[in-house]
Amino acid sequence: MATTRGIGGRRRLIFSTAMMMLAACTAGCTTTDRTTTGSVTRASARPVEQMNAMELAQAVQTYGSRYQKDPKNKPLALAYANVLGMTGRGDQALAVMRALAIAYPRDRQVLAAYGKSLASAGEFEAALDAVRRAQTPAYPDWRLLSAEGAILDQMSDRQAARALYHRALDIQPGEASILSNLGMSYMLAGDLKTAETHMRSASSAPGADSRIRQNLALVVGLQGRFQEAEAIARRELSPQQADANMQYLRAMLAQQNSWAKLKDKPKG
């Protein structure tokens, strides 16, 4: 029988793996490429989600240099915090977002992104406060509802999280990012079949990006269907990126001797 500690460890393992597999943006917020208050020239022509380690490092340097000269530039600060988070510099990303939230205390996009950074740092109560302050009850924003749900999921409040996802879907039916977050909720709870159902809906929905399809690959891989998972992972990523994703998944599962158990599990 699995112990509570073992189950908790497995959930943390799955969550950590999901983060490394480029999980969909938990805040569900508009990216810096679509901001309406200004523009930022990207450090690379490639989407940030598809950059390799060298390109991300260059993006950090480029955005960092610009940020030092203009720290209150909202699109620039959002872009800088994003690439910092993707290179594992969560504390630095949080510092950038905290300063931006002070400069824009009522901006919904800034508060949503700040909430994401707080949640990534494990400051869940503060993250909830930031996202809820950004919300307008009379005219709820589906992105913020999904963001709040993602934070609650990380606090293991699955029922409340899923209720928020369904509210968000009522406002924005078929939205890929909400369906992906809903799938992640079931994945974190260990219900991989239900997670896969939602992830497949998300990956085929309009607006689905590479990160969402990588999450589908993750769910499939966690069920032991590795060839299928690798096929999904390789459709859009470079061979090097796909290899890195699958190698990381294997390494994480191997830490708890889970990879061999899944691989040897009879089909069906």
Description:
The structure is a single chain. The protein is mainly alpha-helical. It has a domain at 53-134: Alpha Horseshoe (Serine Threonine Protein Phosphatase 5, Tetratricopeptide repeat). The chain is 68% helix and 0% strand. The protein is built from 14 helices and no strands. Helix 3 packs antiparallel against helix 4 and helix 11 (210-222) runs antiparallel to helix 12. The longest helix has 17 residues, at 4-20. It starts with a helix and ends with a helix. 40% of the residues are buried. This is Flp pilus assembly protein TadD.
Q: CATH top level of the domain at 53-134?
A: Mainly Alpha
Structural class: mainly alpha
Through-space gap between termini: 21 Å
Helix content: 55-70%
Instruction: Calculate the mean pLDDT score and round it.
Output: 78
Question: How many strand elements?
Answer: 0
Number of helices: 14
Pfam families: TPR_16, TPR_19, TPR_4
Protein name: Flp pilus assembly protein TadD
Signal peptide: 1-27
Keywords: Signal
Write the layout of secondary structure elements.
Layout: H1 4-20, H2 53-69, H3 74-86, H4 90-103, H5 108-120, H6 124-134, H7 142-154, H8 158-171, H9 176-188, H10 192-203, H11 210-222, H12 226-233, H13 239-255, H14 258-264
Helix pairs in contact: 1-13, 2-3, 3-4, 4-5, 5-6, 5-7, 6-7, 7-8, 7-9, 8-9, 9-10, 10-11, 11-12
GO molecular function: identical protein binding
Signal peptide: 1-27
Protein name: Flp pilus assembly protein TadD
